[in-house]
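Table 4 source record.
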Amino acid sequence: MSGGPGTRMRPITYYFQKGLIPIGLKQKPLLEYVVRLLNFYGITDLAFLVDYKAEQIVNYFDDGSRFGVKITYIHDLPKFKGTAGSVYNASKHNAVTVEDTLLVYYGDIVTTLNVKKLLEYHWRQKACATVALSSGFTVRVGLADMDKEGRILGFVEKPKLEKPVSIGIMVLEGETLKDIESLFPKKRPVDLMGDVIPLLIKNDKPVFGYLSDAFWYDIGSTEAYEKLDHAFLERSLSFLFKQ
């Protein structure tokens, strides 16, 4: 997923495509870490779903051979809006089919997640969809404790959530493309997490969560980018540059 305008990262994204924001001590583009992670775990057939400043991504990655992968570029279309729309549009361009297993990776996430184990879990469970999850997520703002009259009793600064959260990576069986297609006459845009996953659950299809303690970080806002520990990220992901 590399097509968003990155509005939460402005003014940086007035000049850069979000996926090309430099991170780590090496100041490599965010998407390079994603490509290297996928290649490290044997995933080499990649489709970049692009739109905003797509030329920057194409110019940097080209056909992917420099990174040991094959990259196809699918440009978003206005009639297929939303994250699910981007995936469905890829199927209309024959980049994916109902026979495939799709690993969907949101382009503003950096992680050490072992995506091979995620796929193996998905297949073992015979799942229709598997969402990668992480527990202990730290909320970046303080939460207020209030009484019934609205009086603030106290604040909890940056608490950790007990419930698992999605980390922006999921596995979908190609058959879910039909479910995505069924949503488009009714609404636009169509969102994977907000629309497709709830539809699969409603239709009693096997949807699983894969809980991981891997490092992950959402670089989706200017605040998150400013708080990124580049040295820690470099140490955590150094294995990607030893191939």
